[in-house]
Amino acid sequence: MAETQTPVQAPTEANGFRAGLTLAALGVVFGDIGTSPLYAMNATVAFADPNGLRNSILGIVSLFFWTLMLVVTVKYLLFIMKADNEGEGGDFSMHALLEEKMKVGRRTPFIFLLIAFGAALLVGDGVITPSISVLSAIEGLEVAGPDMGHLVVPVSLGILVALFAIQRFGTGGIGRAFGPIMLLWFIVLGGLGIVQLFNHGYTILAAVNPLYALEFLWHERAQALMVLGGVVLCVTGVEALYVDMGHFGRKAIQRGWLFVAMPGLLLNYFGQGALALGSPKMPDNLFFSMVPQGWMTYTLVGLATVATVIASQAVISGVFALTRQAIQLRYCPNLPIVHTSSQVEGQIYVPIVNLLLCVACVVTVIMFKTSESLAAAYGMAVTAAMGITSLAYFYVRIKVWQKGLGWSVVLLALFWVIDLSFLASNVLKFFSGAYYPLLIAGGLFILMLTWRMGRKAITTSFFERQETMDSFLEKLPEQTYTPIKGTAIFLTSDNNYVPVALQDQMNFFHVLREENILLTAIPDVKPKVKHGRIVEMVKLDHGFFRITFRYGYREQPDLLELLRYAHDEVGCAIDIDDVLFHFNRERVFITRSRTLWYPLKALFLFLARNSRSTQENFIYPPRRAVETIHPVFL
User: Fold this and answer.
1) Distance separating alpha carbons of residues 488 and 7, to the nearest angstrom
2) Tens digits of per-residue pLDDT, 518-540?
3) DSSP bridge partners of 537
């Protein structure tokens, strides 16, 4: 039977919670983009012409201003963030929306593969963000004391290792402090900018005129793309505005950007530009040169370090959430997931992902050593992900919303003018480090594609050999077996076929429970399913029932609670006190079939052996469960 579904709502803002949601969004959503002043301007002015410093600085600051306005305020806040899936954001949410409208056959649609690659790029961003953020903060020690430069790499490594070590304790305790600290950070950013404007004059404010940006790009054509590769760093973390939308809602993120984050960032960038114009010699580090050397530098280094840790924490948590979504959307094996909070469902910890991220960040810091050299690698991940998000949004407009093709093409073209310009600027830096996130994303994409293709091949082969339930029930009266009291629950991916555990039970033990339920779980494209969870319940012959239910990709359903609901509300006669769950675990064997290229088969076998079983997606009493091992051949 089917029931009417009530949509999952985004976080409510009624009853005075607006300020709290906005403050919380500052601590999680804006951590990454909020720390970009540490390195973005330094990486960009390195390409400025010393002979025409005034016009170069005005042009660069103008590019910063209009990039923040057009990319963050216009593209993401006004357009992209409207493509939510019941309040949830991120490219995988658009993937879920498209799955409802596009038929997925034997071949996965190209846009789905592209979205998966975009998700892999965001994981690459999760490697680079902690590395460059912590490095750029600790590099303030070089400004405070030139003889302390040798401490930058070891101190950064120590902070990163400590950051990943505490992930297993969860972010619930320190999470409440994130918002106020980031609010202080943005106030400091704005205050430092105002001081520099007061000390060096307001000439830099003319950069609001877009003609300075256009004139700079025209006259500096030879190095314009290189400059854009630095400018794009001011919008690093913009994808977090979209990915984390489900936690706080679009309105809270919009308020946090318009009233706190954007003013603080713009004032600081204008202040750094004023400092560059007013200094007889270009400072080695524009950000930390905004305060006098001494105790103020050390204080700013300390605050910047805390801010970068918060930014890193937000990205790491985002990678955990992304991994979980990938598992539910069948792009990733079932990895062990630990819920670190008994109150907040979204606070999770993925041990193997945490370990791999830690190792990758340590290797990254050792390889690149400075935030300036790492900036080239950072831009590639951000710009490629932005371009993919624009294309996914285009597909949502025409496939899901049924918007006109003409305006959708115009929007995509406008978005891509910016996205591809920034992407081209980073392609020029490919051998300087831009290859690095592509290498990470390429490896992750191969893993995701291998898992998806392998699972599809096994599923096809499995059901070709299985007996249908209709045939099984038709021949059942002729079988010799012993009936046993109680209810047996068989979790199966397709209840039209006989579960392996049921076949083995009949073939080897010749026993059958009085009541048998074929329970099929369907991962829903929505994050949560609160109502209408049971999609179908059919009573078959000989005490068999067929129950199909849905669960969201952010849920871990309680099977016993589901059965109680079926017993009380639907009227299924189930003895809740005497149920036995039967699960099937696959063991993969590699054959000479041509389903996959042999190296990919070996990779799939490795992933399968390190994947947790399907039943671990659900909550059930472990003492009432039996597991059957079933060989599958790839």
Assistant:
1) 33
2) 888 887 756 677 666 777 888 88
3) 547
Q: Which span out of 67-76, 214-223, 293-302 was modeled with the highest average pLDDT?
A: 67-76
Going 439 to 440 to 443 to 446, the CA torsion angle's sign is negative
Overall CATH class of domain 18-452: mainly alpha
Give burial (CB, 10 Å; 0-12/13-18/19+) of 184. middle
Cβ distance 304 to 137 under 8 Å?
A: yes
Q: Would you state the torsion angle of the CA atoms of residues 8, 14, 15, 17, taken in this order, to the nearest 10 degrees?
A: 90
Structure-token pair, residue 228: 């854009």
- Whether the per-residue pLDDT at 344 is higher than 70: the answer is no
| pLDDT surpasses 70 at 30 | yes
Q: CA–CA distance from 444 to each of 124, 265, 631 (Å)? A: 9, 33, 27
Q: What angle in degrees, to the nearest 10, is found between the helix axes of 110-138 and 295-328? A: 160
Give dist(CA 282, CA 280) in Å, integer. 7
Answer for the pair 324, 350: CB distance below 8 angstroms, yes or no: yes
Confidence (pTM):
0.78
Spatial neighbors of 406 by CB under 8 A, at least 6 apart, are: none
Residue 490 DSSP code: E
Q: How far is CA 299 from CA 153, 294, 533, in A?
A: 20, 9, 53
CA distance linking residue 280 with residue 116, whole number of Å: 49
Instruction: Compute the distance between CA of residue 340 and CA of residue 322 in angstroms, rounded to an integer.
Output: 16
What DSSP state is assigned to residue 613? Answer: P
Which amino acid is it at 89? Answer: G
pLDDT, position 3: 34
- Strand-pairing partners, residue 581, are 489, 625
Q: The tokens 């992304």 sit on which residue? A: 322
Contact 523, 493 (CB under 8 A): no
- Spatial contact of 374 and 128, defined as CB atoms under 8 Å apart: yes
Domain boundaries, the chain: 18-452, 468-633
The C-alpha torsion from 119 through 120 and 125 to 128, rounded to 10°, is 170
CB 370 within 8 A of CB 284: no
In angstroms, how far is the first alpha carbon of the chain from the final one? Answer: 36
Residue 12, token pair as written in the block: 């409510």
Q: Is the pLDDT of residue 169 over 50?
A: yes
Rounded to whole angstroms, the Cα distance separating 483 from 473 reads 15
For residue 413 the two structure tokens come to: 């073209």
Which one, of 237, 181, 177, 185, lies nearest residue 32 by Cα?
A: 237
Distance between CA atoms of 287 and 289, rounded to whole angstroms?
5
Both tokens of 106, joined, read: 């034997």
What amino acid is encoded at 154 in this protein? P
Backbone angles phi, psi at 619, to 5 degrees: -105, 130
